[in-house]
Amino acid sequence: MNTARLSWSRCIRRSGEGRVSGDPASPGGAPCIPLLRHWRLLSVGFLMVAFSAVGQTFVLSLFGGEWRATFGLSHGGLGLVYSTATLLSALLLIAAGHLVDRVALPLMVAGVVLGAALGSVALALSVGVPGLVLGFFLLRFFGQGLMTHTAQT
User: Is there a contact between 56 and 144 (Cβ–Cβ < 8 Å)?
Assistant: First the structure.
């Protein structure tokens, strides 16, 4: 197992030095794939896209019946709350989108994940419609908005 890891790291290093994919000089004759030199970034991006589901409509809609019953909202009332939070999130996302280019990536990822977690907690602990709006806003802004934006940038 250890030798495979060493071979892989040498392959990555060689591809970073200008060697091309499938270079016969790669260790063990295994092809080097330059794209995989950044496997950590690709993994983080993949996970962020996957975990952005917490802010997506297809997940939030699963709980619509419970929220309507708990808060005494009609279908239209819940739709108004949800669309208000989504619109506010979209407007703020226009202004906050540049942060991914200016903030260090580990700090940005931590902030986005923390924001989505706070949105989940706010939604779980909401006792009124304002708490519902806050929870929806945080989940739409951090979960669906910035999480996918950070992953794709």
Answer: yes
